[in-house]
Each structure stands twice: as C-alpha cells, then as structure tokens.
Amino acid sequence: MSEARGGLVMDVPKSRWPAWLDVAQSTSGLLLALFMWGHMFFVASILLGKDAMWTVTRFFEGYYVFGTPHPWLVSLVVAAVIALFVVHGALALRKFPADYRQYRALRRHMKGMHHADTTLWWWQVVTGFALFFLASPHLYIMLTQPGSIGPYGSADRVWSDGMWGLYLLLLLAVEFHGGIGLYRLAVKWGWPGGGQTARRRLKALKWGLTAFFVVLGLATLGAYAQIGMEHAEHYGERYEPGLEGGR
Fold first, then answer.
1. In 159-195, where does DSSP find H-type helix?
2. Which of 111, 131, 195, 232 is in the most buried spot, having the most CB atoms within 10 Å?
3. How far apart, in whole angstroms, are the C-alpha atoms of residue 243 and residue 42?
4. Residue 92: how many CB atoms within 10 A of its CB?
C-alpha cells in the first residue's frame, strides 16, 4: 500500500492481522458448529431410551476406560468449549455495529439493497448477541455440575428447575446462528464453487440442516420435559439402569 507524505510516496506494508483474525474467527466458528451438531446427537440419545442416554453420559465420563465415572472429564471439555466460545465472540464483535450511527447506516443499506445474504448476516449478529446470554447459564451449569448430567438429572433440570424456556430459546438461537454461519463460511471460502445455482443449493442444504436439528432438538426437549414431569416427585434421584423405574 502506498501513502503520500509531503509530496513523497512511501510504501507502507499491509498488516496481515485482519486476515489472521478472520481465519481464527472462521476456524473457531467451524469448531463450535461441529461441536453443536455432535452435542445435539449426544443429548438426543434420550429418544432411544434412558439406558442409551445413561450409556452416552458414562462414556464421556470415562467409565468404560477407568471403570468408574469421572465427571471432571466433562468439565474439561466444557471449559475448552467456553474458551472457544469467548474467543469466537470476541473476534465476531469486530464486525458488530460499534454505535447507533453505524447501526442506522447498516439498516439503510439493508433496506436499499434487499440482499438475502446481508439479511442472513444480520440475523447471525442478532442470534450471536442472544447467545451471550442464553448459552452462558447452560455452560456454567455443565462446568460446575457435570455429575448432574443423566436421564433424570437432565430431565429434572429441564422441568423441575424450569430451564425448558431457556433451552427452547437457546435451541433456536444456536441452530439459526450456526446454520447461517456455516453457510456464510462455505460461501466465503469458495465451497462448493461459484455461481448462483451452487449458492441456491447450498442455501437449501443450510435450511434443510437447520430444520432437521430444530425438529430433533424440539423432540429431545419434549422427551426430557416428559421424563421430568414423571420424575418430579423423586427430584434429585439419579438414574440407575436395570432397576425398576430406574430406582
């Protein structure tokens, strides 16, 4: 880049930091989205029955390696996710409107352009902002109470602790944010190639995946709520497979 000073043209080297920060944001977002999908399948194991969910929980607690469960292993994973969440959020803030003037300019631009991808970016910003408040309580609980994860513990949290409302909003925010993010990431880095046809197919795939995970999440949340209602009188009791009623 050239810069004129006192009639002289000076070569000023371009900073690579914006590019590196963009790569870091893309990478952290991709990792979080992949974790989100994996996490959804893990918690959805309750749809296969209490024993299936108990087995998945014990797997992540190292039960099948050490012979006894170690919930702190779950806390380590959650701590890594929190760190990634914070880094990704901090990097994403670079592109948020910094003040009301920038916000108004952006809204005027959106209304004038009527560009679908710009609208998607705006909803990504809105859902990302919401996730600061919706994801934090859930991550804190998982970090500090990993031993409570299980068919009854999770169901009690959803129903008896009244967390179903938070989890419903969290489900919608994270699935829309993650789906839009992956779509924009693919477009940004040139996959699956240029052209309007490829982009339309990619967008259709994005909405299909979002719909699938929202439906899966709603079914999973409903299953935990049903178990929580049935287990309300035994709140705090842990599930043990092979016993009548899990008790």
1. 164-188
2. 131
3. 23
4. 17
Q: Cα dihedral sign for 230, 137, 173, 29?
A: negative
Is residue 70 within a helix (H) or strand (E), and if so which, with residue range?
A: none
* CA pair distance 40, 217, nearest whole angstrom: 7
In angstroms, the first-to-last Cα distance of the chain is 71
Report whether 155 contacts 225 (CB < 8 A).
yes
Nearest to 20 by CA among 91, 108, 82: 91
Mean pLDDT along residues 25-49: 95
Please state, in angstroms and rounded to a whole number, the distance separating the CA atoms of residues 157 and 153: 6
Give pLDDT tens digits for 192-236. 766 778 888 888 999 999 999 999 999 999 999 999 999 999 999
pTM (two decimals): 0.85
Whether the predicted pLDDT of 61 surpasses 70: yes
What are the tokens at 47?
């749809």
- SS3 assignment, position 234: helix
The letter for the amino acid at 38 is G
- Give the residue from 243, 247, 241 showing the smallest Cα distance to 63: 241
Tokens of 202: 């990619």
